[in-house]
Amino acid sequence: MRAVTASAPGGPEVLSVVDSPEPVPAADEVLVRVAAAGVNFIDTYRRSGTYPMPFPHVVGSEGAGMVEAVGADVTTIAVGDRVAWSAAPGSYAELVAVKAGSALVVPRGVSDQVAAAVPLQGMTAHYLVTSSYRVEPGATVLLHAGAGGVGLLLTQLAVAHGARVISTVGSAEKETLARQAGAAEVIRYRELSDLTAELPAIVRELTEGRGVDAVYDSVGRDTFDASLASLSRRGTLVLFGASSGPVPPVDPQRLNGAGSVFLTRPKLDDHVADRDELDWRAAEVFGAVLDGSLDVRIGATYPLAEAADAHRALESRSTTGKVLLIP
User: Fold this and answer.
1) In 182-236, which residue ranges form alpha helices assigned H by DSSP?
2) Rounded CA gap, 77 and 101, in Å?
3) 187 pairs with which residues across the strands?
4) Is residue 298 predicted with pLDDT exceeding 90?
5) 265 with 240: CB under 8 angstroms?
């Protein structure tokens, strides 16, 4: 089969399509022919060596497709089922082995591409508004990268929970998308000469000096100081990504000085800790897609051979919505 491998830690240039042996599903796995694979920032962290990985390795962990074979112990999934997943190493490939315990059966009415876009980013948006900071009616939240894959989903879910969303984006096109998703206010951060000083000032002007109840920050190093300064007293900073680079070590005393605020650095694995929690989150996200209350934007698709270009686009922050690879 064809698969995209990272030959060594480095930039997108280390990615290439190679002929790789077809995986053999273990007793608790299913073998899936991949219809679409999700491209996510965590893939770039693993490719670059920011997150430790063996090299070479087949990249990717998210996707959707049809089951071609099942392991001896699998009873809940059958050949011919369509499934999606968020944590199957080696998903940038024509075939991938997926743990049956983490595979999600795709409901009828959800396309393969939408199904591939939902597991990681959709369930991330879900845990952010239900668990990391539980959004209640009347809350005001600041959301960075509002036109990205998570950003557009998170905006819609936060608004559905009754929040007023202030979004930051990088262009007029992205502002339009953020507003269509429900953002009440949109700030174009590229127009600010000093993000750390100017963004909190704008946020406080929009909140009558109070600041926001929560900040959802997937950008990291470039936005962290501005995020912290934008919080209300006892507000919550949810740092769930680092697209601009990791945040340097933080003195806990800064949380005191910012108004007894809270800082959390969550990840999806800890919010789908058992099958019941995984099924709950997936059912709510897929249900929202099916009833039309959650729009999943597929921003770009690339063939496997152009995986490096997909990574370049994602890391340049030029993408909107979800980026997919199509084997």
Assistant:
1) 195-206, 224-229
2) 10
3) 168
4) yes
5) yes
CA nearest to 125, candidates 105, 97, 155: 155
Per-position b or e across 51-69, b if 16+ CB within 10 A of its CB: eebeeebbbbbbbbbebeb
SS (H, E, C) 8-28: CCCCHHHEEEEECCCCCCCCC
Evaluate whether 14 touches 67 at the Cβ level (below 8 Å): no
Q: Is the pLDDT assigned to residue 317 strictly greater than 90?
A: no
For residue 164, report the phi and psi dihedrals to the nearest 5 degrees. -95, 125
Which residues sit opposite 38 in a β-bridge? 62, 324
Other beta carbons less than 10 A from residue 33's beta carbon: 15
Percent above pLDDT 90 for the chain: 98
- Distance (Å, rounded) from C-alpha 103 to C-alpha 76? 10
Inter-CA distances, 141 with 59, 154, 167, Å: 34, 11, 8
Q: pLDDT, tens digit, for every residue of 182-218? A: 999 999 999 999 999 999 999 999 999 999 999 999 9
Q: What is the dihedral of CA 187, 191, 194, 198, to 10 degrees?
A: -30
Contacts of 176 (CB under 8 A, 6+ apart): none
> Which conformational region is residue 76 in: left (phi greater than 0), alpha (psi within -120 to 50 degrees), or beta?
alpha
Question: CA-CA distance, 200 to 198, in Å (whole number)?
Answer: 6
* Residue 129 per-residue DSSP state: I
pTM of the model: 0.93
The structure tokens 């059912």 sit at 283
Instruction: Answer yes or no: are the C-beta atoms of 213 and 140 closer than 8 Å.
Output: yes
Helix or strand or coil: residue 194? coil
**What 3-state DSSP class applies to 176?**
helix
For the record, the structure tokens of 123 come out as 């369930």
Angstrom distance (rounded) from CA 160 to CA 180: 13
